[in-house]
Amino acid sequence: MAGHPTRIADALRARIFAGGHPPGSRLAEIPLAESLAVSRTPIRLALAQLEAEGLVLASPGGGFLVRRFTLPEIEDAIAVRGQLEGMAARLVAEQGLAPATRRDLEACLTAGDAALEAPALDAAALAAYGDMNSRLHAILLEAAGNAALVRALAAVTALPFAAASALVPHEGSQAARHALLRHAHHQHHLVVEALATGQGSRAEGLMREHAENARRNLRLILAAGEPGVTQLIAKA
């Protein structure tokens, strides 16, 4: 495996979600570097990235510990994210959508359409959609031009599964997952349309509803019974 920190973080995250590192287990640089055949530097950077996401915590004895979460705290974070992203959308619509921002958003829509056009999603299509989704949400937040909003959203989305980018692959119910992503991307189209026409209240409402897709996605994952994810999340 190439030693790029983001790819290492992806590999470690996948291991955690697959149950390879259960909640409370310790992640140390040297064993991880040996198992992934990379140096300690990208491991250190990857663990810092997972810590920023809230998936692991620094251990007093060194290394990191895999966190455990409750379903209510994740769903509360998703609800707050919807409020904050709704505010961002309203600000952008009321300020007027800049032509360059509109072009960037429309490029995201085109990329998302291409990723979802196949009858079934493969790993490459899912990765392409995830990249597009993260980019679209980042463009919207940047266009709002509100630093306090950026900080608040960063705090809320520190929980895994709560961020807009929380597209966790799962084995069960692939058809349901594909349908959910199609619905979510249709909402992307509606949001950009509302932004372009200056409909602040509509854009805000659409983004609040859009955040609920993260809750539906999480429920699908839990219903599929994936051991790595279900052991990370307590029901209460």
Task: Provide a brief overview of the structure.
The protein has helices at 5-17, 29-36, 40-53, 71-95, 99-116, 123-144, 147-156, 174-196, 200-224, 227-232; strands spanning 26-27, 56-58, 64-66, 69-70, 233-234. The protein has 236 residues and is mainly α. The chain has two domains: 5-67, Arc Repressor Mutant, subunit A; 70-234, GntR ligand-binding domain-like (Four Helix Bundle (Hemerythrin (Met), subunit A), Up-down Bundle), CATH 1.20.120.530.
Give short descriptive properties of this protein:
236 residues, mainly alpha, Arc Repressor Mutant, subunit A, Four Helix Bundle (Hemerythrin (Met), subunit A), 2 domains
Describe the structure.
- The protein is mainly alpha-helical and 236 residues long.
- The chain has 2 domains: 5-67, Arc Repressor Mutant, subunit A; 70-234, GntR ligand-binding domain-like (Four Helix Bundle (Hemerythrin (Met), subunit A)), CATH 1.20.120.
- It has helices at residues 5-17, 29-36, 40-53, 71-95, 99-116, 123-144, 147-156, 174-196, 200-224, 227-232; strands at residues 26-27, 56-58, 64-66, 69-70, 233-234.
- A 3-stranded antiparallel beta sheet has the order 1-3-2. A two-stranded parallel ribbon has the order 4-5.
- A hairpin with a 5-residue loop joins strand 2 and strand 3.
- Helix 4 (71-95) packs parallel to helix 8 and helix 5 (99-116) packs antiparallel against helix 6 (123-144).
- The longest helix has 25 residues, at 71-95.
- It is globular and about 55 Å long.
- The model has no long low-confidence stretch (mean pLDDT 88).
